[in-house]
Fold this sequence. Notes:
Blueprint: E1 3-4, H1 6-13, H2 16-35, H3 39-43, H4 48-90, E2 94-96, E3 104-105, E4 116-118, E5 138-140, E6 160-162, E7 170-171, E8 180-182, E9 195-196, H5 198-203, E10 210-212, E11 232-234, H6 243-252, E12 258-260, H7 272-279, E13 286-287, E14 290-291, H8 294-315, H9 350-361
Amino acid sequence: MVGVNRETLWAWLGHPDAVRGKRDAKANRRRRRRGKRSPASEAAGGSEEDKGEEEGDDGEREMLEEDGEAQQGEESEDEEERKWRDSYLARVTHLHLQNKGITHLEDVGACGGALVAYLQHNHLTRLINLRHLRHLQELYLQDNDITRLEGLRELCNLRRLLVSGNRVGVVEGLPRGLTELHVQDQRLPLGDALILDPHALAAVQDTLRVLDVRGNRLTEMGAVGLLGRLQVLRAAHNDLSSLSHLGTVLGRLTHLKHLHLIGNPVTAHRRYRPAAILAASPTLETLDDKPVTAHNRDFLVQADRYRAARRETSQQPPAAPSTSGSKVSAPIQPEPHLLFIPVTPRRPCPRGARYGAALRAGGAAPARV
């Protein structure tokens, strides 16, 4: 097991030139101290015999004094070096800790001023003890064994979070202010799909610009509709199959520019591309890496209107004759004298002619012979 603490941080992040310069300075100080003469030897004078006599009395005392001074000097140097190391680590802005076999994070507080942390390609299983990196802006955690997104809410300056290739089952606990989230290709148990927590996405709905959820067996993306400021959505190689559901989500992403859905069952629908373009915002620039021009959109809009008009016409029942604003005409009544006119008039005979003339004159009908 490999942990991250002050010693390992210094071993991995200590600059070789700085370490070498510090060691050289320390060695020079030791040499200068050893080259100084002791006070007793400097005060000693006279003949060689007097020096010889004094050596017997003062030799042991001088050795003890030198040992004490050396020990105190080493302790002060060690304390000075420790402070210098802490000062050096506090100024480190990029933590290059990738491919170190790290299994857990013990203490990263020594690098409290870090802006970027490269922790990808290790063996991390949990995200703890990151709260001291309050200035962190980018966190790279690809290809670890992380199962939960925890301990991130306190990183109020975090803008980019990359956790692809892990074992995260639920997107949760996102810090406010996050602009990019990459959680593609999670190594989940067979049959499980990534869950997008609506509360987590609601916390970043005003800031998140890029979302990558490729290869996570997603069957729906309802929570993505909360991300009103999203500009890039990569959701390829999932299990999205409902064209109406996709249209509902796209209709809420009013700032979307780039959409990538290759590898989903919904893309096999014959009207997938026109429906996606019509449902998406006019800001959409590319769909599955193919450009969406204003001419394409205008053509689809006109065609959709034409089809809607034809469909409405074909479904409308035939209109009944309108009677509003006009009087109902009564059936035509024939004149009374016309009731007796035969449809096919016969040629009158002389007798009939005299009979009719007499009736018109108002006289009596002639007697029949």
